[in-house]
């Protein structure tokens, strides 16, 4: 991973500089020419093909911060990416050059208690793309540890490979929810993450997948791509569904509370959506039914499964892409989600 403060020497055979869309400050983007990042011994240099726009990118653009992470220096956004390996570090097999890859955009320390327990997503020293002060992928090139750049089959598009990152959130949520064949699941929010979670739940074997939202067009789309039942959050109650698991992808306090009351005894509640820092919960309901409640913070070891599911046609991520933008129009891509009918914008740094 790189930061804008670095000034490395050019990699042999490649340009000395690259273009990047840089968030200078809140709601202020600019195209800049930056030094080409140089891979460490265990890293690869990836020429970025496609970058999905995430809600966190939009939040940094609009508000300049997420919780304790503040954009107080220029920052390159974007953490959902795919590309092609252009160069490798001294400890990486040169045969990897030219490989198409999907990038897991994080760098754990690998030595702390959480990492050694296999929970590297909870590493206190983790570096994550587009989380201040670490730069992301709205740029022509990025670096990443070689084992976090996963080869992808020819049949997997650049867009789908980039969207393995949000798919990983959905897979991790389903894993935490212990969704198994025959499970009944409720998902709140029919945005990109909700639809991805529905597809992931189906891939895990769930037979009934309820999804709720206030937008009828998104509910209709969800029914075509993963969900088995659609509920309008304004008019349809979810309480009493007695599902095995509830996954909140909305962040709406009311959706969280009502979703919990849809869970059967010993069921699971997984909080994925970003909303208020504090939410009132039906504690007695949770206690009396021994409901297990957990948040989700990114993912661990999900890329191999995600790639297989896409290659086997069990998950379709290409259907989520509703807007395509060249790198110079990254700011427009960040604003695209507010337009009717938009689900996922993708930025192409090579254009």
Q: What report would you give on this structure?
A:
By secondary structure, the protein is α/β, with parallel strands linked by helices. 23% of the residues lie in helices and 29% in strands. It contains 10 helices and 20 strands. It has helices spanning 55-63, 113-116, 158-162, 164-176, 192-203, 216-224, 253-260, 283-289, 303-311, 330-335; strands at residues 17-25, 28-35, 43-52, 65-66, 69-70, 75-76, 80-88, 100-103, 106-107, 127-128, 141-145, 149-151, 184-188, 208-213, 229-232, 243-248, 263-271, 292-295, 321-326, 344-348. The strands form 5 sheets. Strands 3, 7, 8, 11, 12, 19 and 20 form a 7-stranded mixed beta sheet that branches. Helix 6 links the parallel strand 14 (208-213) and strand 15. The protein is globular, with a radius of gyration of 20 Å. The two termini are 22 Å apart. The relative contact order is 0.15.
